[in-house]
């Protein structure tokens, strides 16, 4: 019901129909490393050069890593970035279906010993992918789990029981395509749940490799990403949820390529004639491409999966070190967006080449995306973003927001909001020495469990002189608003959407 009220309010306002038409953006989150593997966080937009399908691109938005502590909050003041640094959420997926029995047992006992050594399990969740291709929660995503930072200390008995339940043979009817489809589907399920969290989102996928299913209607040059079924859908889902998959393998059958793959910076693309005869898990022998079939060269496949999503593949590295590196990279990633031409969206995989002008810098980022057209009008695209922010169980922080509240003056019951918007998160257009922006601002009343009534919707069009713009960059973009409330209101959520990029920020705070 609340979504219907919200959508009706947006339609009635007529504002979306007047909105500009933002081009679909490609968003990248590169991590820059020096020759010693240490993060480099002082690069500028001019240091990055982007080529998409051999076409140079212009950086539209750019943000350096947010690794400075936030300014202290005052009395009755809230922020959607209370820590200042970029938040991150990680799911560990222990994949039983794509591991042999010996590796499953060894990894199980290793996790039993190492995970309890974590100082905190905050923003960390844990699932099994069992032999039937089902997700088994050990520490599931949800409100109850979010409040439990000590769960790794007590996880061994829960994991042991789940592993004993899963100690049986693989279903005899499950073929290679079934395994691939179920694996990708469950990764997408986790990614969709992670999309509700602010900041960076990662899935650490503990596996030996992956099965794959090839599209026989397409010519295949040895590149499983281009040839495989289900991979385009997986790529789109992960990109929309902004989730990186980070393979972690302890497999005994990793090829000798595993070591070099840990340091490679270019995409792997074997020649089209590199075919081999393999035997799959069902005992069938056939001609398959080098990549995409477990047992041939799983290290190459896992590295490709990482590069498809913006992650990094790890081989035989302990889970604690991996979690630490993932957290470091999440906090040290840049944010870059560019807008390809309208004819770019052609239902094909696109290769992205990003280079750094500063010598000695190695970049880790997503190197492909599936160019899925979005036929929705711009108003519908923005409405979908606003609805998602309105319904989200958590606040979103693409746009930084701080607010301080006080009682409204006069006899009307309500609150006065003094809001500061982070201007560096907005796209400003400069013309004639002035800087202009375009935003939607929503205020939603909420009870202790659900939204109440229709939100207030404002269309903001700041137009600043150069002097005002420079001041705003230092102090934030101010917005003051009186907001009447009723007795039923327990919380207020404010939502800001940049009409030029569809970036969104939200902040929920109590008023009682």
Short description:
The chain is built from twelve helices and 28 strands. By secondary structure, the protein is an alpha+beta fold.
What does this structure look like?
This protein is of the alpha+beta class and 512 residues long. It has 3 domains: 2-24 and 379-510, Immunoglobulin-like; 33-62 and 337-373, no CATH class; 88-331, Rossmann fold. The chain is 25% helix and 29% strand. It has helices spanning 2-13, 101-114, 143-146, 155-165, 176-194, 224-227, 231-241, 258-261, 298-309, 319-331, 378-391, 466-475, and strands at 26-28, 31-33, 48-52, 55-57, 59-63, 77-79, 88-95, 124-129, 135-139, 200-206, 243-249, 275-279, 285-289, 314-315, 335-338, 349-356, 362-364, 368-370, 401-407, 414-421, 429-431, 434-436, 439-446, 451-460, 463-465, 477-484, 491-498, 504-510. It has a 6-stranded mixed beta sheet, with helices on both faces. Strands 4-3-16-18 form a 4-stranded antiparallel beta sheet. It has a 4-stranded antiparallel beta sheet with strand order 6-19-20-26. β3 and β4 (55-57) form a beta hairpin. α5 runs parallel beside α7. The two termini are 24 Å apart. Residues 4-9 and 256-295 have low confidence and may be disordered.
What amount of the residues lies in strands?
25-35%
> What structural category arises from helix and sheet content?
alpha+beta
Radius of gyration: 24 Å
Number of discrete domains: 3
């Amino acid at each position: 019901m609340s979504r219907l009220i919200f959508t009706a309010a947006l339609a009635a306002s007529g504002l979306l129909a007047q909105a500009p038409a933002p081009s679909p953006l490609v968003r990248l989150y590169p991590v820059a490393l020096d020759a010693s593997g240490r993060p480099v966080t002082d690069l500028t937009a001019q240091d990055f050069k982007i080529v998409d399908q051999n076409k140079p691109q212009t950086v539209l938005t750019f943000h350096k890593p947010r690794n400075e502590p936030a300014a202290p909050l005052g009395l009755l003041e809230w922020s959607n970035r209370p820590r200042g640094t970029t938040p991150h959420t990680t799911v560990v997926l222990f994949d039983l279906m794509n591991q042999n029995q010996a590796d499953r047992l060894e990894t199980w006992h290793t996790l039993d010993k190492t995970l309890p050594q974590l100082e905190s399990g905050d923003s960390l969740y844990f699932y099994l992918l069992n032999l039937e291709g089902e997700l088994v929660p050990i520490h599931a995503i949800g409100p109850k789990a979010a409040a439990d930072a000590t769960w790794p200390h007590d996880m061994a008995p829960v994991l042991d029981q789940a592993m004993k339940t899963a100690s049986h043979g693989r279903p005899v009817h499950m073929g290679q395509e079934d395994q691939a489809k179920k694996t990708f589907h469950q990764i997408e399920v986790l990614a969709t749940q992670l999309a509700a969290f602010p900041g960076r989102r990662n899935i650490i996928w503990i596996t030996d490799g992956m099965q794959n299913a090839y599209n026989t209607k397409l010519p295949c040059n040895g590149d499983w990403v281009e040839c495989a079924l289900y991979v385009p859908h997986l790529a789109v889902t992960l990109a929309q949820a902004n989730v990186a998959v980070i393979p972690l393998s302890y497999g005994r059958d990793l090829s000798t390529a595993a070591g070099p793959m840990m340091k490679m910076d270019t995409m792997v693309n074997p020649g089209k004639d590199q075919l081999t005869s393999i035997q799959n898990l069902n005992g069938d022998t056939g001609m398959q491409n080098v990549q995409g079939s477990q047992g041939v060269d799983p290290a190459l496949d896992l590295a490709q999966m990482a590069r498809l999503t913006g992650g990094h593949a790890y081989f035989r590295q302990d889970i604690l070190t991996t979690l630490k590196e993932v957290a470091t990279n999440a906090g040290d990633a840049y944010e870059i967006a560019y807008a390809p031409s309208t004819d770019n969206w052609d239902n094909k995989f696109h290769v992205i080449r990003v280079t750094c002008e500063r010598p000695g810098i190695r970049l880790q980022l997503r190197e492909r995306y599936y160019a899925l057209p979005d036929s929705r009008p711009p108003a519908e695209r923005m409405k979908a973003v606003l609805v998602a922010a309105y319904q989200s169980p958590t606040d979103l922080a693409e746009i930084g927001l701080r607010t301080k509240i006080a009682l409204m003056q006069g006899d009307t019951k309500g609150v006065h909001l003094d809001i500061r918007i982070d201007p560096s998160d907005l796209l400003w257009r400069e013309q004639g020495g002035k800087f202009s922006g375009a935003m939607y601002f929503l205020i939603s009343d909420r009870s202790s469990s659900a939204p109440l009534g229709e939100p207030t919707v404002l269309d903001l069009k700041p137009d600043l002189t150069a002097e005002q713009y420079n001041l705003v960059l230092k102090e934030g973009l101010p917005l003051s608003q009186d907001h009447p409330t009723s007795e039923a209101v327990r919380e207020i959520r404010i939502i800001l959407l940049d009409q030029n990029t569809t970036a969104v920020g939200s902040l929920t705070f109590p008023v009682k």
